[in-house]
Design brief:
single chain; alpha/beta; three-stranded parallel sheet; 4 helices; 38% helix
Amino acid sequence: MTAQGVSTMLRFGQKSVIFLINNGGYTMDIHDGPYNVIKNWDYTALVDAIDNSDGNCWTKKVRTEEELKEGIATATGAKKDSLCFIEVIVNKDDTSKELLELGSRVSAANSRPPNPQ
């Protein structure tokens, strides 16, 4: 999803719920390094800026399970006629065992010399 995609959804009156899982970086990246420390954006403010006070979207930043439940209830209730954007803040190391295993396999495959064709 890109900012332009959100803009297009707003322009055409899309009434969806978008969840952005924000772990503040690239936990899954296959190479560890200082380039993985990125400036964390305020994604809800970005979507609000795209909407430009037109009133066609509703945004919420959540940090707890209870806040998430409340956000979903609002998005599917009072704000169901809007594009809803919920930014879910999670710990940067909050990832599944399977995702970490995938990262290890991709890293191993990328560390092989290229296959000359």
